[in-house]
Amino acid sequence: MKTLAKLPVTIVTGFLGSGKTTLLRHMLDNAQGRRIAVIVNEFGELGIDGDILKQCSIGCTEEEANGRVYELANGCLCCTVQEEFFPVMRELVARRGDLDHILIETSGLALPKPLVQAFQWPEIRNACTVDAVITVVDSPAVAAGTFAAFPDQVDAQRKLDPNLDHESPLHELFADQLASADLVILNKADLISAEDLARVRLEVAEELPPAVKVIEASSGRLPLDVLIGLGAGSEEHIDARHSHHDHHHDGEDDHDHDAFDSISIDLPQADEALLLDALTQLVVQHGILRIKGFAAIPNKPMRLLIQGVGTRFDKHFDRAWGADEARTTRLVLIGQELDAAGLEAQLRAALSV
């Protein structure tokens, strides 16, 4: 009986808006015949990122593609790893003869170390190995001192007092994502000056073990051979990587990101300009960190994909509406202490719906 080689797994981590999903799409679009399974950990009630990934061309039928995308939608991977991650991995292990690689996109607020440690469990360790942990860094946000591309008002105090950087939960989480990395991508390198990029590289290097490589990218466009096949075996040395949050898993789980809320809002069709203006107002008034979803625009046959970080919104028509599909707008809002009913009422009033 032929013994199957261990299935390599790439874990992609990074803050909200850093470009993780774009990187995964690039990897899938350039799979070159590799049979890749994807686990998407979406922080929110809507598996929007999973829906995006299912549209990628990965060399198989739509039915097969849907069977290879697993969405973990009820919290961060490090929190749900025992409830959901293990059964999903067990299913993939049973199918590993049909797979060449596994990609895992963590939540933007997840801690990577506990996930890597899960690969020490015998049933997974005997069948899989962590090829690499890739941390995607939002270079302009680090250059600005915010670490994540949040609106200015979310962390105005940090900008005024740089001495708070090493004290803040956001910086600690940024450091923890770097501490677990085998490869760091300084993403959006084309959006800042060469001087700022050099400064970001130095700041990132302070948090990294010496052997970790740091590369620059724009929209995650890198050769696949640079991203997979690293053979890091991260589960073998992860315990030696220091993390600010190591003690959180000794007892009751008290992650800093528990304070983040994720709410979903369903709306009817809406004028594109009015909707984007209304969403921008929500961000400014309520400190919304991230907005993502799909919108139905009157008299448009295609669905509008919206992804916003702070007041910066990216949008494009991603696909045609299905003949039997309800043309509705579905959005996920991520922030702190969000009033779901109040936000929906404000949106509906702005859109007069």
From TrEMBL:
Domain CobW C-terminal: 260-351
Keywords: Chaperone, Hydrolase, Nucleotide-binding
UniProt record similarity statement: Belongs to the SIMIBI class G3E GTPase family. ZNG1 subfamily.
GO biological process per UniProt: cobalamin biosynthetic process
Gene3D superfamilies reported in the protein's UniProt record: CobW-like, C-terminal domain, P-loop containing nucleotide triphosphate hydrolases
Protein name per its UniProtKB record: Cobalamin biosynthesis protein CobW
Source organism phylogeny: Bacteria, Pseudomonadati, Pseudomonadota, Gammaproteobacteria, Pseudomonadales
Catalysed reaction, written as an equation: GTP + H2O = GDP + phosphate + H(+)
Source organism: Pseudomonas orientalis
Protein's job: Zinc chaperone that directly transfers zinc cofactor to target proteins, thereby activating them. Zinc is transferred from the CXCC motif in the GTPase domain to the zinc binding site in target proteins in a process requiring GTP hydrolysis.
GO CC field: cytoplasm
